[in-house]
Amino acid sequence: MNSIITAHSIRFVLLVLFQVILFNHINFLGYINPYIYIIFIIFFPIKNNRLLFIFLSFLIGLTVDMFSDSGGIHAAASVFIAYTRPVFLKFAFGTMYEHNNVKFNNNDFGAKLVYIALLTVLHHIILFSLEIFSISRILMVFQKTLFSGIFTILMITLVSIIFSRKH
Description:
The chain crosses the membrane at residues 12-29, 35-60, 72-93, 113-133, 145-163. The protein is mainly α.
């Protein structure tokens, strides 16, 4: 049990550090950044306490907000995807989720990619809507969501392939 808590704590800290030190400063074409920290929310174990999971999602978003001086938008987007994650798990994995039998490393790549893409796009829509907060600039929200979303999905998929443990 302590090793699981330690592993999640290390993952939390490393993802925040990589996000604020490296990924927040990429600014490809002036506005495209990957938000790799959401991998913590995407691949958090399913069978854990839901309230704890939502709190940890808030905490990782708030920590990124504190280092990014972004006023809570990462926390809001993180809590939203943590709260809605069961819907997307059921959509992507179907009966495996209903039977609590989802193991991210042992699933088919297509289902995992759909799951990653849906949560990433949802996160980015919330994030950029709150960041821009203007209905007249809705195209900018969609543009940033699309391009940062593609970049984030590629990075998360790459990280999940590199760090996956096949049994």
